[in-house]
């Protein structure tokens, strides 16, 4: 089934050292890599195995930040791509609603039109109007798939305003919430399927951002791997409803990421 307007379809790591990033994420998420562009900025595609259908498919990419990009303020980070039906209309609608265009629209052969934008609270993400009818499986909404993104989480300065914005742009709707005490509610977001959640920033002074939770088979083994390979655990394993555990971490180049998985002997 072809992706729809408002779907998460791609995840991109922007990093200062693409070879080091491949060495770190490859064993952690069981990824293979394919060179997409050798010219600056260098780009590698991330491939994950889907054991259910015994196929390997693309789940994201790694972009190596050029010195000029870094001098312009870019730093290592993960960004998500959201599909749109019409790039021109989507950009106008976004700016009319208070969003910003951070990088002008760029056409990429065999990919489509892409641009970097931010919501009114300044959380950055990509828009993409894909060429062709290819269906992305990068976000595993239907079943657990190791090496795939399992959850998309917006941490923002104004959750209610953010929900109204994303609903107006992509048709996302709130579907339940979880009380987090002094931190407020954790509001679940649906777009045909459950895609993630939104919450207010827990500490003052932090800029809004998106978190992306990638699935691993064993969260404890992942924690050990991260600490043994110059990564940093920024949130220890925390149990979530359903019995799985999540962590937050930082890769050796400083990009934040999240993992979800079970504990035990798996």
Q: What report would you give on this structure?
A:
The chain has 266 residues and is α+β, with helices and mostly antiparallel strands. The chain has two domains: 123 residues, 2,3-Dihydroxybiphenyl 1,2-Dioxygenase, domain 1 (Roll), CATH 3.10.180.10; 114 residues, 2,3-Dihydroxybiphenyl 1,2-Dioxygenase, domain 1, CATH 3.10.180.10. The strands form two sheets. The chain has an eight-stranded mixed β-sheet, covered by helices on one side. Strands 10-11-12-9-13-16-15-14 form an eight-stranded mixed β-sheet. The two termini are 32 Å apart. The model has no long low-confidence stretch (mean pLDDT 93). The chain contains five helices and 16 strands.
Task: Determine Rg (CA atoms, Å).
Answer: 18 Å
Low-confidence stretches: none
Q: Which fold name corresponds to the CATH topology of the largest domain? A: 2,3-Dihydroxybiphenyl 1,2-Dioxygenase, domain 1
Q: Report the principal-axis shape.
A: globular
Task: Report the strand count.
Answer: 16
Quick check: average pLDDT?
93
Strand content: over 45%
Name of the CATH architecture of the largest domain: Roll
Classified in CATH, the superfamily of the largest domain is 2,3-Dihydroxybiphenyl 1,2-Dioxygenase, domain 1
CATH class call of the largest domain: Alpha Beta
> End-to-end distance, in Å?
32 Å
Oligomer: single chain
**Domains counted in the coordinates: how many?**
2
Biggest β-sheet strands, sense, barrel: 8 strands, mixed
Question: What's the helix-strand series?
Answer: EHEEEHEHEEEEHEEEEHEEE
| Total of DSSP H or I helical runs spanning 4+ residues | 5
| Fraction of residues in helix | 10-25%
Enumerate the strands of the largest sheet in spatial order, edge to edge or round the barrel.
2-3-4-1-5-8-7-6
Pfam families: Glyoxalase
Organism: Pseudohongiella nitratireducens
InterPro entries: Anthracycline_SecMetBiosynth, Glyas_Bleomycin-R_OHBP_Dase, Glyas_Fos-R_dOase_dom, VOC_core
Protein name: Glyoxalase
